[in-house]
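EI: anyone free to look at a 107-residue chain?
SC: sure, send it
EI:
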Amino acid sequence: MLSTEPQLTENRLVFAFHGTLSPHPSFSKVNLLRNTDCIDADGKEIFEEDYVRFSDTQELGVVHYRDGAFYIDQAMPFEAMTARLLGEYQDQVTVEGSSLQHPEWML
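SC: here you go
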């Protein structure tokens, strides 16, 4: 059940849910992306599966959630990048888009 009206933030429609969702055909193509509670260098909210670019190296990374934390992982197959904790680098990255906007960037 929706707990609040949908809200548009940073060009994204966000729904707040609580309780359990029963399977419903209209939800078969819905991607729910978690807000990381992190803000990039330009003041934009960072969401799971966002593509972020490091200001110093221009490396492109993608935000993933695993092991209880959000990480920035390698986004492009030709870039060699070590996974980094998002919270430690949020002020050094800018959001470039999401995997939904740029599926061609996915590995």
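EI: The beta strands are 7-9, 12-14, 35-39, 45-47, 50-54, 60-66, 69-74, 84-85, 93-98.
SC: 👍
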